[in-house]
Fold this sequence. Notes:
This protein has 380 residues and is of the alpha/beta class. It is built from 12 helices and 15 strands.
Amino acid sequence: MAKNVSKLNSKIWLSSPHMSGHEEKFIKEAFNSNWIAPLGPNVNGFENDLENYLENKTHVAALTTGTAAIHLALVLLNIKENDEVICQTKTFAASVNPVLYLNAKPVFVDSEKDTWNMCPNLLEKAIKDRIKIGKKPKAIIVINLYGMPYKVKEIHTISQKYNIPVVEDSAEALGSQYNNQKCGTFGDLSVLSFNGNKIITTSGGGALVSRSKEVKTKIIYLATQAKEPGLEYSHITTGYNYRMSNVLAGIGRGQMEVLDTYVELRRKNYHYYKKHLGTINEIHFLDEPEGYYSNRWLTCMVLETNKIRDDIQQLLEINNIEARPSWKPMHLQPVFKNYPKYLNGVSDNLYQKALCLPSGSNLTLAELDKIITLIKQYFE
Ligand SMILES: *Cc1c(COP(=O)(O)O)cnc(C)c1O
């Protein structure tokens, strides 16, 4: 089974790539058949694997990165200069940067406490507010943060009420479920990432999940320079070079064979941390609401104060253990500071007090115990 390359006295990483041994056969195939191009049988195979995994009549296009997938999602939704796009503020900057690529404007919306994702009440308030000043938002980018599904029912009720499409950023949530349906199938368009730190990896990669074959065809067309059919190089619209390479898709096919195992291992990490640290008064974990199933991409704990959080982070760091504060909200980032925001304090509080713990599927029990012992000692 899984080759374990992390060692106890070497650094313990937040979330490092975890090769299963199944990847090399697909890469060898690519080399033997000379399919080293940004298309080929592994790309189709990886897309099929993802479509079968996600079910719900999904159509998956494999791309170079998750960020590229968000960019193309916004292009498909016809986002133009000065259009407004509602974005969850509690996320990684990759969710929002593509809005700026199109010279459109992000409008930030804060989170709720149950899932740490976009607050439905605040979303509706923001939409009403923007409509009042004649700027109806063109899209909503919502996140499944750290693998926890967002409030799907509530958010999509609002999306339908105001007829605004949802881009589901599921970069962190492959393998998560909401009411037994997989994350990555809820958005009008959904985004996956296979970056090195994600639940499965192709070293770098992403995918855009759509609801029809026609849309998938259009995504592939845009991702391959928008070249018209025929031998001439003929173009009638702006294209991009965003297609995944056949070599990297081979890694993805191997990783798909262990995806469910890796989800279980990450969930086990969460439960182990919670069992041993959850009894400490100053530490809080985010439980799954009824019907929610998180892949627990990262286990994140909330400390009573900012000082305790920073103390523990530093304590782990001097012991060669990588733990990190949770994503700094976008409304606090200098690059995004001038855009409208609808806040309630939830993301600011998490930014001050939450700490992401090492969460890889390749962590050993000895490594988990080392981390837990250090944290327990801090409180003694
Ligand atoms: C990783 C990540 C992305 C970007 O994916 P890349 O493949 O690294 O471009 C987007 N959104 C979120 C929430 C992420 O965590």
